[in-house]
Amino acid sequence: MVEMQTYDVAVVGLGAMGSAALYAAARRGFRVIGFDRLEPGHDCSSSFGESRVIRLAYFEHPSYVPLLRGAYRAWRDLEVATGERVLTITGIVEAGHPGAALVEGSVRSAREHDLPHELLSPRQVNDRFPAFNLPADWDCVAQPDGGVLLPEKAIGLFVAAAQDLGASVRLNTPVREVQPLGDRVTIRLEDGMEIEAGSAVLAPGPWIRDFVPELGKRLKLTRQPLLWFSPVHADLVRADRMPVFFLQSSDDLTYGLPDMCGSGVKAASHLSGGDLASADEPRAEVSDDEKASVRAILQRYVPAAAGEVSRTSLCVYPTSTLFSGCTLRRRKLSWHRHARATASSSPVSLAKSSLTSRQIGAPAGRSGSSTLIGC
Ligand SMILES: Cc1cc2nc3c(=O)[nH]c(=O)nc-3n(C[C@H](O)[C@H](O)[C@H](O)COP(=O)(O)OP(=O)(O)OC[C@H]3O[C@@H](n4cnc5c(N)ncnc54)[C@H](O)[C@@H]3O)c2cc1C
Questions:
Q1: Nearest-5° angle of CA 234, CA 83, CA 52?
Q2: How close is the Cα of 27 to the center of ligand 1, in Å?
């Protein structure tokens, strides 16, 4: 008879969230195993596309700020542990029409948490960062802490560092089912193999309904086009001359990142590019209208960036419901509603909402638990 393999923690999905969980568990000395149905850095879900924004004063809600404070520390810890750079501070400018919720929200977060920020006139922004041409009546706030993360590199580092600490990793290995069983959790693989763990961290991104059908319609999947633009003035859009930006015009919320590695300025709409029924639903290519729409915004407000579209890609936002995770205990879900986890917050949302000693390595006799993260 083949003996079943046992671990303290099993992590399902090794995107930004799962790879951070794998590393966090390995660092705490747990026997951990991680699975992904594909190879890390693949372009089928949400943790790819060269860059991700990190910002401290969240316009969405001040309750994100403590999570982000910890995330900045955790990203720097990863850099120290690996000797590699994943976070570049560029600052961020958020600007919008008078009374824009984007600017009001960031200023509120900054004030409530006493974060460095500057209220600037559009003219001051345009003078300081000549890539911009913001309208004279817009509201603007600049945060010095905004920056850019490299998601594919971060995932590779998390996985490699976890392996160095003894973690097992199975790639191209889809997990079919995770079932609490007494005080443990059973992980069933597509090939029929079973693995036992004290706890499971479920981080399958947009495939989360495969494990928790109870999520049902609470989980909304949206297609999100990403576009890269050849700059009109390459010297003005480099990371040392142009910050990350969010712009709230009358009909769109657009964000963009400076040219980090010669691939152009990445820009996209933060609004939905269409609902997806499932993560596997084929996604319509980025249309000419979508390209023209983002380019028109850049031509108007960030003209130095608004050259030809050089590349496009399609990503998935897993939900619009606010929660960073929910705990599945004997098929009962309890929701952590305070914040939506994002790539930038992954190291700390994991540490806070999942990898507590309460849930991992729980003493024998307690029920096995799974923590669902990343929506
Ligand atoms: C266009 C776009 C822009 C974004 N911009 C930002 C930003 O600027 N800043 C920010 O902080 N966040 C941003 N986000 C959000 C952020 O990227 C996501 O929150 C984050 O990447 C989600 O990571 P994840 O690990 O939860 O999910 P995913 O990246 O989707 O990873 C899930 C993994 O689980 C694996 N998996 C699924 N099912 C199984 C299974 N059955 N068995 C084994 N493995 C499985 C998948 O293969 C995948 O690798 C953006 C998202 C998008 C789409």
A1: 45
A2: 22
Q: How far is the CA of 15 from the centre of ligand 1 (A)?
A: 5
Pocket test residue of 52, 215, 221, 312 for ligand 1, highest count of atoms within 8 A of CB: 52
pTM of structure:
0.90
- Strands 275-276 and 221-229, how do they pair? antiparallel
Helices (H), the chain: 16-27, 65-82, 101-112, 122-128, 151-164, 288-301, 346-353
Ligand 1 centroid from CA 303, angstroms? 31
- Ligand 1, residues at Cβ distance < 6 Å: 12-18, 35-38, 45-47, 52-53, 174-175, 203-207, 210, 224, 226, 268, 315-317, 342-344, 374
Residues of the chain with CATH 3.50.50.60: 5-47+152-216+322-373
Q: Does 228 score more than 60 pLDDT?
A: yes
Handedness of CA 210, 203, 177, 34 (dihedral sign): positive
Give the position, in ligand 1's atom list, of the atom nearest the Cα of 375.
Answer: 26
Encode pLDDT of 94-118 as tens digits. Answer: 999 999 999 999 999 999 999 999 9
Residues, the chain, total? 375
| Torsion on CA atoms 39, 45, 47, 51, rounded to nearest 10 | 120
Percent helix, percent strand, percent coil in the chain, to nearest 5? 30, 30, 40
Mean pLDDT score, 79-107: 98
Query: Which residue, judged by its Cα, is nearest atom 20 of ligand 1?
Result: 343
Name which of 368, 305, 375, 294 is nearest 340 in CA terms. Answer: 375
CATH class of 5-47+152-216+322-373: alpha beta
Q: What is the mean pLDDT of the chain?
A: 87
pLDDT band at 347 (very low <50, low <70, confident <90, very high): low
Q: How many angstroms does the Cα of residue 202 sit away from the middle of ligand 1? A: 12
- Identify the CATH number of the domain defined by range 90-149+220-317: 3.30.9.10
Residue type, 50: E
Tokens 């980025």 correspond to: 286
